[in-house]
Amino acid sequence: MSSRRQLRLGAFMRPVSIHTGAWRYPGAFPDANFNFAHYKRFIQTLERGRFDAFFMADHLALLNMPVEALKRSHTVSSFDPLTLLPALAAVTEHIGLIATASTTYNEPYHIARKFASLDHISGGRAGWNLVTTSNPDAAKNFGHDEHMPHGERYQRAREFFDVVTGLWDGWADDALIRDAGSGIYFDPDRVHVLDHKGPEFSVRGPLNVARPVQGWPVIVQAGASEAGRQIAAETAEAVFASQATLAEGKAFYADIKGRMARLGRDPDHLKILPGAFVVVGDTVAEARAKRAHLDSLVHYDSAIASLSIALGTDASRFDPDSPLPPIPDTNQSKSGRERTIALAEREGLTVRQLAQRLGGYGGLAMVGTPATIADEMEQWLVEGGSDGFNVMFPWLPGGLDDFVDQVVPELQRRGIFRREYEGRTLRENLGLPRPKSRFFPAG
Amino acid sequence: MSSRRQLRLGAFMRPVSIHTGAWRYPGAFPDANFNFAHYKRFIQTLERGRFDAFFMADHLALLNMPVEALKRSHTVSSFDPLTLLPALAAVTEHIGLIATASTTYNEPYHIARKFASLDHISGGRAGWNLVTTSNPDAAKNFGHDEHMPHGERYQRAREFFDVVTGLWDGWADDALIRDAGSGIYFDPDRVHVLDHKGPEFSVRGPLNVARPVQGWPVIVQAGASEAGRQIAAETAEAVFASQATLAEGKAFYADIKGRMARLGRDPDHLKILPGAFVVVGDTVAEARAKRAHLDSLVHYDSAIASLSIALGTDASRFDPDSPLPPIPDTNQSKSGRERTIALAEREGLTVRQLAQRLGGYGGLAMVGTPATIADEMEQWLVEGGSDGFNVMFPWLPGGLDDFVDQVVPELQRRGIFRREYEGRTLRENLGLPRPKSRFFPAG
């Protein structure tokens, strides 16, 4: 075991790939998001690559995009994460299983029970990506005409978290005696009735599942707003970050870890893992060509909308096959516009290529050889930009296989990524402490 | 394949065994309800025994019993069925997976999505035991001070069913084109927006999961009230029945199938499967001795409450080790009282033994050799008492292994139970038609 700081790697699966052209890439599985056998292959490869976790995104509606874009995207639909991950638990032994579950349109008793069940079934490998749902189409699937306002969503999320963790804490770790001789199955004095009554929820408890193997499944969050950062610093153990550059990443990292220190939390007890879209080639040029081909599979009608948003102007009036014309200032996101213009100039992209880049994946990307990708990851780790990454694969299975077969060995050779799992649970592998029950702190 | 009528067999798992003494039986797994490895063993044995389905009961609270009884019962807690069954799907190939899910404290969009996901993940083996929740303690876990009245629960259940099946029907079977050449993933004209607005639910849709493999997962119900029988005749494809005698079973069978005929449904399209508690021995006397030993493991304090309810009088004042004294008439359930008195006389049970029998399991039981058990099952099948059974095992793993290793071969030898699965899906194995989408009836 190396004494160097260790990378943590999650595999971020947003219906298979975040890239809307992924299903059309040569050799890709077009039906991967609805084919359990494919998911099984992916996760078993990730486990061979010693990934910390398989991280499943979620939406509670068809994605909120125009039908012309939607009908071209495999991200239109996906299994419920809390139904998929138990099945993947049964075909793996070590890798963590992080499911996204919304606090906006769920009941805390159900969520507490499902994650406790997953944690038992997987032997302590569950993680909960606690999100609020901001897709306005989701509201309409749950009896609401209007989407819940941002502030109310966060207030509800915070109380939801308190109820769920309170239910998990309601059984002492040793409450289940199972003494066949005396006939006592559990000790009623080691079970706490939560009796929560708050502005959003009234939940009596106790939960009808024993305390999770990990005490609590690992708490993951992704909020980037002021409220989201604060709730993360207070409660999260891993954060899915979305900064696109190392400078932004370092600022975010310092902000969150600083908040933790001020709250009296050990900054090591939260892992910051930016999403990173990784394309591997034998040469940097080959990797870039792969990405360019992938981007070219994004339909122009879908792509141009992303470019228009980034530029703050209607890009559909530009000649697709010419360089980007001069863009006037608007009152929309200046940094986004400048970054987009700089990207077009740096890589010499036409309007079409630029649009397809943004329509595919516009965030942090590492496109190169195993060595250049490892260089970038190491730099983020060493310079305080992150504790690791949520890797996003450009297409499946090829992009995932390339990462595990080529990048992982390079990271291992440098001594910054495990060769074997350190522990039995996700919490142990991430180096996170096991929470004590608030009601039974002695154990 | 035999031309004789075929038995359908479900394995009814109410945290492992319905019998509250099961966990104390010699050789039983005391932690079976929280040990995934044990569940895996059980279901793989059932699949070897060609069972139609693994049927998981559920409660949304600790069971509503006095703590003195509760603390002695392994039924206190169990995995969420919709988290357990996907994991079991991944370790089996043929057996059906029926999960109980309440319409009282759930949202139809979630339930539609979870069962659709389970159906895809299992290759078409999902079933939904649609129940209303009548445990008053459950209400308090979901923000309600009072339990929902019976009539309202059934009205909500019926609308819930309409919404869930409407969401399943919202994608035509051929909506997902996945044409990599043209870049079209799905045909928007083959997706229906449900836009349901009813007294209980407002759900827009469409679901973000493709139509289930089976069209709909198999619909299972257990209601025995007038409202429950009618909703079953209208919508169910399997019924968990609870009649304790063949005469009662025949009356129930005729009632449900008669209602179906009057509704224009083919009576073969609903399978009536009473719960049957089966104890196997080399001789009838040995099987009875096993049961008596099992019953003796039920604590008297828990048992006496069941006897008091059955007799309509406080049985704790009787001498436990004497025969039942004469019981005066009360205005409580006369048939239950008479059946209990007759049972005590027929088997010569003391008050303690009688109480422990009822506290263990008081319903339909088949206690004998493989031949006598097969005789009973065949009689129910031939005389129109049932289409099969939901078998309840007295303890695990022994009681389950005995059934699969000894009773199943006897049923197969008689030509009334399959030697190999007939189809790929639960629906095909049960001989049920695949529903057409109401919105895309041509396919």
Automatic annotation (TrEMBL), chains A, B:
<feature type="region of interest" description="Disordered">
    <location>
        <begin position="317"/>
        <end position="337"/>
    </location>
</feature>
<keyword id="KW-0560">Oxidoreductase</keyword>
<feature type="domain" description="Luciferase-like">
    <location>
        <begin position="21"/>
        <end position="386"/>
    </location>
</feature>
<dbReference type="InterPro" id="IPR016215">
    <property type="entry name" value="NTA_MOA"/>
</dbReference>
<dbReference type="InterPro" id="IPR036661">
    <property type="entry name" value="Luciferase-like_sf"/>
</dbReference>
<dbReference type="Pfam" id="PF00296">
    <property type="entry name" value="Bac_luciferase"/>
</dbReference>
<dbReference type="GO" id="GO:0016491">
    <property type="term" value="F:oxidoreductase activity"/>
</dbReference>
<protein>
    <submittedName>
        <fullName>LLM class flavin-dependent oxidoreductase</fullName>
        <ecNumber>1.-.-.-</ecNumber>
    </submittedName>
</protein>
<dbReference type="InterPro" id="IPR051260">
    <property type="entry name" value="Diverse_substr_monoxygenases"/>
</dbReference>
<comment type="similarity">
    <text>Belongs to the NtaA/SnaA/DszA monooxygenase family.</text>
</comment>
<keyword id="KW-0285">Flavoprotein</keyword>
<dbReference type="InterPro" id="IPR011251">
    <property type="entry name" value="Luciferase-like_dom"/>
</dbReference>
<keyword id="KW-0503">Monooxygenase</keyword>
<keyword id="KW-0288">FMN</keyword>
